[in-house]
Amino acid sequence: MTAADTADVDQDRDAAKPTRPFSTFEWMIAGRYLRSRRRETFISVIAGFSFAGIMLGVATLIIVMAVMNGFRSELLDKILGINGHMLVQPIDMPLTDYDAVAGRLEGVPDVVSAIPFVEGQALVSGPAGNLGALVRGLYESDLRRVPLVANNVRSGSLDGFGEGAGVAIGSRMAQQLGISAGDNITIISPRGSVTPMGVTPRVKAYPVTAIFEIGMSEYDSTFVFMPLEEAQAYFNMDDKATGIELYVVDPDNVGVMKTAIEDAAGRPAFVTDWRQRNVTFFSALEVERNVMFIILTLIVLVAALNIISGMIMLVKDKGKDIAILRTMGATRGSIMRIFLITGASIGCVGTLAGFILGLIVCLNIESIRQFVSWMTATELFDPTLYFLSRLPAEIDNGETISVLVMALALSLLATLYPAWRAARLDPVEALRYE
């Protein structure tokens, strides 16, 4: 055998060697199949719809889950910011030693503050109408330790709140009653003075020293804060308190703190936490969040089914090309990887585009809401219905990663069957009628 013959044999042996998995050759062929030609326009349209479906499905999932998380977080901050994380109420005997009990409770580790309060329901009246209200009496120093109120005073001031007989009300209440800081508000309580003719309602006017805006419509239209001693006199509570609210470092850790709180109270007390008082509300939010995730996942699933249909049509259209590649030495694995790359590319790029789109919308959700409201001349997020005055969005990294992984997995699974069919194609049958 001559040297030339040996070289030819070596070249034939090298040509017969299969290409390594995911080689440049396979990526090149997959790229050509992704680029549309005139006679492949229909297949390209299906691929485009698949891409758009994956992108919109992923973006919608990210946006909706972020809004649900933001909605829950905002409500939790507002509810716990004004009602406290734990509530200590007296049992058997009135809470007359509230200052001493509050001092002992503040000594418990992880307790930030213990605030005694007097609370009662009343009717408030102003020039523009009447409203039901929840009147809460606090020391001025304690009211300043409620940041949602102290840091959100829109008009007036809390200076001298504990020394006078003024009250602080929410902005929505002030708007509905038609009053501003410095005006008088009339508070009417059915628990008034006892006379020979029976119990007469108590009616008293108070100057409005401060107007606050928490950002939760229910609280801004309901709460009235007055000095603790004035509230005790108004509700005939003498030297008693309704209860003591506790603010702790970690609201999710209130369960393990309950025993220490009961021991520190030093008297019979009924201790409840924010989870017990709002269990129905937050359970409903959690159920709604999980159901929305399942429903919106169907969008991504439909887009994945579009990938299957588009890839099957591509395999049928490329039958002759597959047969030629097989006769030239391409293995079944190489053919399968080519179509796997083709279909997975649609899913991967669509998932990435959906992630970017969802991130952009989440970061500008309130501006988008305001723009759409302005364009349509409608209120898209009515605070009286949704409690909050702005549309919140909070992206959870774990949830976002799970959405991306789910979309990528569905896209990859959608390409397996069409790629397997392409690999199983018989070159002889494909070229029989060509």
Mean pLDDT: 80
Estimate the strand proportion.
15-25%
Low-confidence stretches: 3-16
Instruction: State the end-to-end CA separation.
Output: 40 Å
Structural class per helix/strand content? alpha+beta
Q: Helical stretch count?
A: 18
Strands of the widest sheet, in order across it, are: 2-3-8-5-7-6
Task: Determine the fraction of residues in helical runs and give it as a percent range.
Answer: 55-70%
Total beta-strand segments: 10
Instruction: Give the CA-based shape.
Output: elongated
Helix-strand pattern: HHHEHEEHHEEHEEHEHEHEHHHHHHHH
Number of domains: 2
Q: Largest beta sheet, briefly?
A: 6 strands, mixed, barrel
Tell me the radius of gyration: 34 Å
Subcellular location: Cell membrane
Transmembrane segments: 42-68, 291-315, 335-359, 401-420
Organism: Roseibium salinum
Keywords: Cell membrane, Lipoprotein, Membrane, Transmembrane, Transmembrane helix, Transport
Describe this entry's structure for a reader.
- It comes from Roseibium salinum.
- Its main location: membrane.
- With 434 residues, the protein is α+β, with helices and mostly antiparallel strands.
- It has two domains: 204 residues, no CATH class; 175 residues, no CATH class.
- 57% of the residues lie in helices and 19% in strands.
- A six-stranded mixed β-barrel has the order 2-3-8-5-7-6.
- A hairpin with a 2-residue loop joins β6 and β7.
- It is elongated, with a radius of gyration of 34 Å.
Defining key terms:
18 helices, single chain, 57% helix, 434 residues, alpha+beta, 10 strands
